[in-house]
Amino acid sequence: MKQGTLIYDLATDRYDIRFDLGCYYGGLHCGECFDVLIDGEWKPTRIEMADDWYLVGIRTDDLQELRVRI
Length: 70
What we know:
It is a single chain. Helices cover about 0% and strands about 55% of the residues. By secondary structure, it is an all-beta fold. The radius of gyration is 11 Å and the shape is globular.
C-alpha cells in the first residue's frame, strides 16, 4: 500500500492523492476505496459525491490534507 495526502484538484474538480512532490494518484472517482488515518487509526472508507465530496463513515468537514493509504 502507498501512503499519501488527500488534496483537492481545482482543475479536475475532484480529490487526488499526493504521494510526493509531483507524484499523484491521478484523481479519485466516486466509489473508490482507501484507508484514512483518523486519531492514529487507519479506517476503511470510500469517496462519494452528493452536494459535495464526502467519505463514507468518516465525519469531517474538511477532507483536505487527510493522510490516506491506497
